[in-house]
Design a protein that fits this description.
Elements lengths: L3 H5 L1 H27 L1 H5 L5 H32 L2 H19 L5 H4 L2 H17 L2 H10 L7 H29 L2 H8 L1 H18 L6 H9 L6 H8 L1 H10 L1 H20 L5 H28 L2 H24 L3 H19 L2 H7 L6 H18 L1 H12 L4 H18 L8
Helix pairs in contact: 2-4, 2-5, 2-8, 2-9, 2-11, 2-15, 4-5, 4-7, 4-20, 5-7, 5-8, 5-11, 8-9, 8-20, 9-16, 9-19, 14-20, 14-22, 15-16, 15-18, 15-20, 15-21, 15-22, 16-17, 16-18, 17-18, 17-22
Length: about 425
């Protein structure tokens, strides 16, 4: 196996992976805290279900901040460069996450507590809006010929790395602390630890250079005045296609993680440590799916891999609900593993497929906006819709959300089938 390109560009690949690892770590520690403790701590209500719903609504708030961040950071990423923009987005994202560790609860500050929580959650999402697109471009625009799929999977592997770090830390805290200690102060520790990961990400990113593709584009012509306007005017179909194409991966991830954790520890009665351990095993299948998809994309095309992955998402929709309702931890684990492997197939190729839809001069903006608007459609409402569907008709109905997400993503792929066939 030829590993030469990996060695030559290892600093760039690490920089792209670390950023998305921090992104998913930040998002998942919030999602886990929202599922376990944020309801009673920040959103007191008459029923436990209402608390959980409000907690998940605060979780979804960041998804609506992400497209705004994508436009702002994409603007500077396409005008002044990928490196500087990625450093700024990581700092905003990291500071917002760290400050959550110091928030007062509702019992301490009343309505100010949820207001501050939602403000910082918006800041998280705003910073994250510029993170994924820049990390993907950092990898793909440095890739040698024939390696774009394998380089594009580097930022995608940050997702399971961040998940394992977050989930593993929550698991250790669950083993060390009582439920009362965790609810009183233990939940703050993961947000404090994020400072270490952000520091590592900044240290790596400050040592990299601008991507060759962007540097070459600047030599040929000046940057676009308003990249977002150019994307809307000249690349509307690509933007719409990219938005739909990412819906499936967001839907699978947040149903198999945040919703499954909340459902498993409430309706199914699992101890949170046991369910976190099940999810830690399942996430390894997601990493396997990403690596498989990266190599497959270079051997065939990212378009083909995504098409198979989206079709599999529809199929997983029929299995997800019954497996979660089974009550058997083996069946639940197999269902989550299969779901997250399929997520690897639809998430892994996006790092190369989405950027290929847009020219270099507006690529940061186009890829970032499509990815983050798709996140609203697929991820923001996923835990909320799943909670409502589960209460209305059981978890069998939750699979409908996955099936619809897979069909929407297939529609997006069809819109640019000829353009992206070799991507």
């Amino acid at each position: 196996m030829d590993l030469g390109p990996y060695r030559l560009h290892r600093r760039v690949l690490v920089a792209s992976l670390v950023g998305t690892a921090v992104e998913f770590y930040d998002f998942y520690i919030y999602g886990t805290a929202a599922a376990l403790v944020f309801g009673p701590l920040f959103f007191p209500s008459e029923s436990e279900s209402a608390q959980l719903m409000l907690s998940f609504m605060s979780f979804g708030l960041a998804f609506f901040a992400r497209p705004v961040g994508a436009v702002v950071f994409g603007h500077f990423g396409d005008r002044i460069g990928r490196k500087s923009t990625l450093v700024a987005s990581l700092m905003l994202m990291g500071c917002s996450t760290l400050l959550i560790a110091f928030l007062p609860t509702y019992a301490m500050a009343g309505w100010v507590a949820p207001l501050l929580l939602c403000t910082l959650r918006f800041g998280q999402g705003f910073g994250l809006g510029g993170e994924w697109g820049g990390a993907a471009l950092l990898a793909v625009e440095n890739a040698p010929p024939g390696w774009r799929g394998r380089f594009g999977m580097a930022p995608q592997l940050g997702a399971p790395v961040g998940f394992i770090a977050a989930n593993g830390l929550f698991l250790l805290l669950g083993l060390w602390l009582s439920d009362a200690e965790f609810a009183a102060w233990g939940w703050r520790i993961p947000f404090l630890v994020s400072a270490v990961l952000v520091g590592l990400g900044l240290w790596v990113r400050l040592k990299i250079h601008e991507t060759p593709a962007f540097a070459e584009a600047l030599k040929r012509e000046p940057p676009v005045g308003v990249p977002f306007g150019a994307v809307l005017r000249d690349h509307g179909v690509a933007l719409l296609a990219g938005t739909f194409a990412v819906v499936a991966c967001f839907a699978i991830f947040y149903l198999a993680t945040s919703f499954a954790l909340a459902h498993g520890t409430t309706a199914l009665g699992y101890a949170k440590e046991q369910f976190l351990l099940i999810q830690l095993g399942a996430i390894l299948f997601m990493a396997t799916g990403i690596v498989f998809a990266g190599y497959w994309s270079d051997a065939a095309s990212a378009q083909r891999v995504l098409s198979w992955g989206c079709a599999a998402t529809v199929g997983i929709g029929f299995l997800f609900g019954p497996s979660l309702a089974s009550g058997s931890w083996i069946v639940v684990g197999l269902g989550l593993s299969a779901s997250l492997f399929v997520m690897g197939l639809v998430y892994g190729p996006l790092g190369v497929w989405l950027p290929a839809l847009f020219p270099v001069r507006v690529r940061y903006t186009g890829a970032s906006v499509a990815f983050n608007v798709g996140g609203i459609l697929g991820g923001a409402g996923a835990p909320i819709a799943a909670q409502w569907l589960s209460e209305s008709g059981g978890t069998n109905f939750v699979g409908l959300y996955l099936g619809i997400a897979g069909l929407l993503s297939l529609l997006g792929l069809l819109l640019v089938r000829s353009r992206a066939a070799t991507a």
